[in-house]
Design a protein that fits this description.
Blueprint (H helix, E strand, L loop, with lengths): L1 E3 L10 E8 L3 H5 L9 E9 L4 E14 L6 E16 L11 E3 L3 E3 L1 H11 L37 H8 L10
Parallel strand pairs: 5-6
Antiparallel strand pairs: 1-7, 2-3, 3-4, 4-5
Protein name: DUF177 domain-containing protein
InterPro entries: YceD
Organism: Sulfobacillus benefaciens
Length: 175
């Protein structure tokens, strides 16, 4: 996905705003582990500061995610933002630069969109806030069925419980 910057780059202070609805997500899709389920909706603002082009984007896309609790696939709306600066390419590529380069009258957004979507997807996505997940004993999906497995005791508090029951933890007044 590319945006034309030929008009913006001519004059310092010039700004252009555009809205993109794009189905062409193959380049961005190849960089991610989950499929896009909707077209990309992107609001882009390009501003010429005189030294660089500032690109600000706000977008949304629907992706297919796997719930981290119940392991079921679900549709996740992913809002994302991009704030990057671009300099016209003049000279050898330097990986230590903290800005992007472009050549000609177009800027490619594929890598930026893929990276922004990747960091905007939660580390452990859940299908809903009340997802009950899987039973730790039998593995049944507790959102669909119930099981007769006993809830395991939490043994982390066992030593403290024994100490309290032994009477050592009670205060005895001295006369």
């Amino acid at each position: 996905m590319e945006i034309r910057v030929s008009d913006v780059k001519k004059w310092a202070g010039r700004e252009e705003t555009l809205h993109i609805e794009s189905q062409e997500l193959e380049d961005a899709q190849q960089r991610l582990d989950f499929p896009f389920l909707s077209p990309l909706s992107l609001d882009v603002k390009v501003r010429n500061t005189g030294h660089e082009l500032l690109v600000e984007c706000q977008g949304t896309v629907k992706v297919q995610a796997i719930c981290s609790r119940c392991l079921e696939p679900f549709v996740l709306d992913v809002p994302f933002e991009i704030f990057e600066e671009f300099h016209e390419e003049v000279g050898p590529d330097d990986p230590t630069l903290d800005y992007h380069r472009f050549l000609g009258d177009k800027i490619s957004l594929d890598v930026l969109v893929a990276d922004a979507v990747a960091v905007s997807v939660p580390m452990a996505p859940v299908c809903s806030a009340d997802c009950r997940g899987l039973c730790p004993q039998c593995g049944i999906n507790l959102n669909r069925d119930s099981c007769d497995c006993a809830t395991p005791a939490d043994d982390r508090w066992g030593p403290l419980k024994e100490w309290a029951e032994s009477g050592l933890g009670t205060r005895q007044d001295k006369d």
